Amino acid sequence: MRIQDLHILPKFRDCWSYLYVEHCIIEQEDKAIAIMDASGKVPVPCATLCLLMLGPGTKITHAAITALADNGCLVYWCGEEGVRFYACGNGKTRNADNLMRQAKLWADSRSRLDVVMKMYRMRFDETLDESLELPQIRGKEGIRVREAYARASRETGVEWKGRSYSRDSWHSSDPVNRALSAANSCLYGICQAAILALGLSPALGFIHTGKMLSFVYDVADLYKTDVSIPVAFRVVSEESDHPETRARKGCRDIFRDRQMLKKMVSDIQFVLDLQKDKRLDQSCLFDSDAALPGALWDPVEGSVDGGQNFGVLATDGDGNGSPDT
Fold first, then answer.
1. Helix (H, G, I), strand (E, B) or coil at 287
2. What's the rounded Cα separation, in Å, for the pair 20 and 173?
3. H-assigned helices in 157-287
């Protein structure tokens, strides 16, 4: 059945944040999925799920992936406890307008600097002096983050020796660093889901550059001092065992209680000056046929309709179109 009114579809910003699973089998069940492990089977309504993180030991069927893709749920393959990113699927949008807007802002040094300054200013409670230049703001940002770690340490009583961890020797890190890595990984995941849902590129970062997730890091840095840092210190102060699992769950609760997806979508739209309340380009989220061709670029017209053979009609001497022979 074709949906006539896309306004009745659940908006991405109203979805659940994420679900992390490991050592399980995932299959399609009706129009959703079911997750099976040693304890039994749990159905998951993927239409309202933003991100599914697949940890070690997971097996997922082709039909389940199809159901997740049809419902616009991002699938994210990651390492143990969600702290290493390996690969992800596509977001739900089929429209490139926002991506072209992002690329235009990114490619021009002046507009890129405007976005950079806007993102830095969003991180501070006070209004920054307009005369400050980028290196000065970077310095203030470093002080802000350092103070956030120190404040979290004072409030929780958890000793802070600095940010330090090794992927090759994960458990040699102290509990709070492992909790921070797990919390940041969850934050990166839903940031990437929001970015892809808006039809943007995770790679075209404005502050960060050179990585395939540069824009994800840009967006995530808006929330670390309010989300991942407090969560990591709090869970370790309560219990030092299994800090990664408890940090993930703590982030999940904050994402839900503070409606973080809604805020992320709004903040990204503000940063890139995207049209408000577009329902994430709802006219293109669920194309009647995603395989249909788009428009063709033209230096004069801007764009012309695609999906037609421009060699079918030839012009005769009188300027009248006649079929090619």
1. coil
2. 22
3. 175-197, 214-220, 228-238, 243-257, 260-272, 282-285
Confidence band of 10 (pLDDT split at 50, 70, 90): very low
User: ∠ at Cα 52 (50, 58), nearest 5°?
Assistant: 170
| Residue with more model confidence, 71 or 43 | 43
What distance lies between CA 319 and its chain's CA centroid? 53
Query: What three-state secondary structure class fits 202?
Result: coil
- What is the rounded CA–CA span in Å between residue 267 and residue 41? 37
pTM as predicted:
0.72
- Amino acid (1-letter code) at residue 168: D
Q: What does the alpha-carbon distance between residue 268 and residue 271 come to, in Å, rounded to a whole number?
A: 5
**Rounded-to-integer distance, Cα 87 and Cα 278, Å:** 28
CA gap 281, 4 in Å, rounded: 15
Question: How many Å apart are CA 227 and CA 234, to the nearest integer?
Answer: 11
- Give the whole-angstrom CA distance, residue 34 versus residue 243: 27
Domains and CATH numbers, the chain: 7-88 (3.100.10.20), 97-272 (1.20.120.920)
Rounded mean pLDDT, 244-256: 88
- Structural contact between residues 304 and 295, judged by C-beta atoms closer than 8 angstroms: yes
Exposure class string for 81-103: b at 16+ Cβ within 10 A, else e: bbbebeebeebbbbbbebeebbe
Q: Is 305 helix (H, G, I), strand (E, B) or coil?
A: coil
